[in-house]
UniProtKB/TrEMBL annotation:
Keywords: 4Fe-4S, Iron, Iron-sulfur, Metal-binding. It comes from Paenibacillus mendelii. The lineage of its organism: Bacteria, Bacillati, Bacillota, Bacilli, Bacillales. Residues 16-76 form the 4Fe-4S Mo/W bis-MGD-type domain. The keyword S-adenosyl-L-methionine does not apply. Its cofactor is Mo-bis(molybdopterin guanine dinucleotide). This is Molybdopterin oxidoreductase family protein. SMART domains: Molybdop_Fe4S4 (SM00926). CDD domains: MopB_CT_Fdh-Nap-like. It holds the Pfam family Molybdop_Fe4S4.
Length: 714
């Protein structure tokens, strides 16, 4: 354990326990020390938190990290397993919980077939738990249906990286290279609120004279850095990039030698852009031609540059192709594989990177192997000691699993590390689907909105108590060791999977007694795969400050910059793809005249289950709000601070209004951190990207209605 009781040398005070840990929230994975001082005057231990020096956060913490201990120490934490009887939860033992789950899952599978049960994971799980969840689905339950919340997060960027480069690692370069880039494009990424401890990399770049382009329908803390802010109409980024590409090409700012030696498909792209009308692009995107031109010339002329994308451009029906267009821009100018030249898909969740590599995705086996590929099946089956024919085929994406529950095809579901009722699009259907299940099991730290619907709820350990590796947004694998014992009856995610598997007769294949033992198997299972962790060990992670994958051998130092010599496709070339200008899937009309987009605020994390239980964070943002432009607010007679009803074709929410000129006039913005009547996903469109099955979260057509009378007053 990494905790250390000590006497404070300066003050001579006894009883300070130092817990060395890592933030449970976003993909930066800031290292920190939580100092618990017992015997303070208030009677409750006083807690202080300090950032710890490391290569990503450089010792910084944001307000969420500073306060994460509050939810971990909350009285609302689940203490013991619960079962629902007559609509109420009662306490049960682990033995009863496991027996019920085993018995009911087995019955469902016997009557309706193996695929009648599903598993649903998350990007907060450690690599070890995510790996084991995938193995549990394929080996213990032998169902094809497993997917995870990262489908809503990284699938567009990940699949685009795979197609263009042959590999998906969030950042192709080290964070330290950002500060020397001459031009930075930040597209649909609000780093100031979502990865705040990374901001200094960008402010340093600015101080060094970098030209910064921000693409976002809103002015944000991030756009405050911009030399050009393209306040794009939501859902039209692909067209905007076509405009930039056309200008770069017309001005001869392409790197012919790079294109010739290292890419393929350029002629098709060029041909595709020949007839592009820049005025039409400007109208479609709601951005003036001069600004598009300024941005294109700045990026095209810079000798070094990096492009970052996040959910603002990715969470669309054409998210995959939009990212590919950003990669086209990067490739035509040859800005990759060199210092301060590269791409960053700004990964979201704490283990959003590792969580998408080791098999909790519908089509995937560990090490980024594919479940439909014969060689991959054979290799992983040999590691797992099973016949490859026993491995199921690929399943469907997260939201499609919800549709299968709604249709009665999936009848039992095990959720580990997600709150799907708040985070899936079209929450109305999702709620109905979950209610129709014969068995819903939720493993969580808290009684989340989804756990409230469950038949069985299992209490899990938090970041302070659970050892495991997390792969941060750089592709750097970090070890987070348990800093204290598991509270009450909670168990580690991986531990309950092992015990459940044993009950299902698969004990031998899940005989792990520590996270490290699982990692040892994961190393082998990933060996030779795209995400090769074979050269990484816990010892090494303790000695070094994290290791970048791919790391194929113990002697390998890890890969800090990708694509210096070749791309990861067998022929070593990167691939261009012509991308169409698209109109958003759901257009505004007289009934639904405004565009709704959504995202995050600094203080809260995802569905808010954890941060809403932290008093310091909850106090800063107590309820959901809709951002709206003053002219639009006047048009719809909506006052600042008043309650407003928002309707889409799928549902209704009620939130408070924040009038601000920082947003486009045709767009409103509502964060995603609240459930119930404040859940923005009651409104969102579940249309899916054909390449990666990412939902069209970021564009829905809505109408507004002020709530009048005493109730609605500011
Ligand atoms: N505070 C906080 N930090 C977080 C999280 C959190 O919940 N809270 N979540 C973590 C996770 S899992 C993730 S995935 C990341 C997400 O990180 P981001 O993707 O940066 O977060 P979002 O706020 O969803 O979206 C970013 C920006 O996209 C803009 N946007 C909306 N629609 C469009 C569009 O059509 N085009 C363009 N160009 N921009 C658009 C929004 O106005 C917003 O400012 O953050 C991580 N960090
Ligand atoms: N409208 C809209 N919807 C979105 C998005 C958006 O931008 N707009 N963003 C999408 C994105 S990018 C994401 S990542 C998803 C996230 O969606 P969710 O996965 O639903 O979000 P979380 O709130 O992180 O849910 C995690 C749950 O797991 C619990 N938990 C935390 N740590 C652990 C652990 O170690 N083990 C277990 N068993 N449980 C744990 C938490 O208490 C919480 O209840 O939402 C997506 N939904
Ligand atoms: S939320 Fe992200 S930036 Fe903030 S402390 Fe945690 S890991 Fe660091
Ligand atoms: Mo995410």
């Amino acid at each position: 354990m990494a905790s250390r009781d000590q006497v404070d040398q300066d003050t001579g005070r006894e009883g300070i326990t130092e817990l060395a840990t890592q933030c449970p929230f976003c993909s930066v994975q800031c290292k920190m020390t939580v100092m618990v001082e017992c015997g303070s005057s208030a009677g409750r231990p006083a807690i202080r938190v300090e950032g710890t020096m490391n290569a990503a956060s450089e010792g910084r913490l944001c307000v969420k990290g500073m306060n994460a201990h509050q939810h971990a120490n909350s009285r609302e934490r689940l203490q013991y397993p619960l079962a629902k009887r007559d609509g109420e939860f009662i306490r049960i033992t682990w033995e009863e919980a496991f027996a019920t789950i085993q018995e009911r899952l087995t019955t469902i599978q016997q009557i309706h077939g193996r695929d009648a049960v599903g598993l649903y994971g998350g990007g907060s799980l450690s690599n070890e738990s995510a790996y084991l969840l995938g193995k549990f689905a394929r080996v213990a339950l032998r169902t094809r249906y497993i997917d995870y919340n990262g489908r809503f997060c990284m699938s567009a960027a990940a699949s685009a990286g795979m197609k263009t480069f042959g590999i998906d690692r969030g950042l192709t370069n080290r964070l330290a290279e950002i500060q020397d880039a001459e031009c930075l494009i930040l597209a649909g990424t609000n780093i100031a609120e979502c990865q705040p401890t990374l901001m200094p990399y960008f402010t340093r770049a600015k101080d060094n004279g970098a030209f910064i382009i921000v693409i976002d329908p809103r002015e944000t803390g991030t756009s405050a850095l911009a030399d050009v802010h393209l306040k794009v109409k939501p859902g039209t980024d692909a067209a905007l990039v076509n405009g930039m590409l056309k200008i770069v090409m017309d001005e001869g700012l392409v790197d012919q030698s790079f294109i010739r030696k290292r890419t393929k498909g350029f002629e098709e792209l060029k041909h595709h852009l020949d007839g592009l009308d820049l005025d039409a692009v400007s109208v479609l995107c709601g951005v003036d031609r001069a600004s598009i031109r300024r941005a294109a010339l700045a990026y095209g002329r810079a000798s070094t540059g990096m492009i970052f994308t996040a959910r603002g451009v990715e969470q669309h029906v054409d998210g995959h192709m939009t990212v590919r267009n950003f990669l086209n821009l990067l490739l035509v100018t040859g800005k990759i594989g060199r210092p301060s030249c590269g791409y960053g898909a700004v990964t979201g969740q704490g283990n959003g990177q590792g969580g998408r590599e080791h098999g909790q995705k519908a089509d995937q086996l560990p090490g980024y192997r594919l479940i439909e590929n014969e060689q991959d099946r054979e290799y992983v089956a040999s590691v797992w000691g099973i016949n490859p024919a026993e491995l199921p085929g690929k399943g469907v994406s997260a939201y499609e699993m919800m549709e299968l529950m709604h249709a009665g095809d999936i009848r039992g579901l095990f959720v580990m590390g997600s709150n799907p009722i708040v985070s899936n699009p079209n929450a109305g259907l999702v709620e109905e689907g979950l209610e129709r299940l014969e068995l819903l099991v939720v493993a969580d730290i808290f009684l989340s909105e989804t756990a409230k619907l469950a038949d069985i709820v299992l209490p899990v350990t938090s970041y302070l108590e659970n050892t495991g590796t997390m792969t941060n947004l750089e592709g750097r694998v970090l070890l987070r060791e348990a800093a204290r014992a598991a509270p009450a009856e909670s168990k580690h995610d991986w531990q309950m999977l092992c015990e459940l598997a044993a009950g299902l007769g698969q004990g031998e294949r899940f005989a792990f007694r520590s996270a490290e033992q699982i990692f040892e198997e994961l190393r082998i299972a990933s060996r030779g795969g795209i995400a090769d962790y074979y050269g990484i060990t816990y010892d090494r992670l303790r000695r070094e400050e994290g290791v970048y994958w791919p790391c194929p051998s113990l002697e390998h130092e890890g890969t800090k910059r990708l694509f210096e010599e070749r791309f990861a496709h067998p022929d070593g070339l990167a691939v261009f793809a012509p991308v169409d200008n698209r109109r958003p899937e759901e257009e505004t009309d007289v009934d639904y005249p405004l565009i709704l987009t959504n995202g995050r605020v600094l203080e809260h994390y995802l569905t808010g289950v954890q941060t809403r239980r932290s008093p310091s964070l909850a106090a800063r943002a107590i309820e959901n709000v809709m951002e709206i432009h003053p002219r639009t607010a006047r048009k719809y007679r909506i006052e600042d601070g008043a309650l407003v009803r928002i309707d889409s074709r799928r549902g209704t929410v009620v939130v408070r209004t924040r009038v601000t000129s920082k947003i486009r006039e045709d767009t409103v913005f509502v964060p995603m951190h609240w459930g119930g009547i404040q859940n923005v996903n009651r409104l969102t469109n579940p249309a899916l990207d054909p390449f990666c099955r990412m939902p069209d979260f970021k564009v829905s057509a809505v109408r507004l209605e002020p709530i009048t009378g005493e109730e609605g007053r500011p």
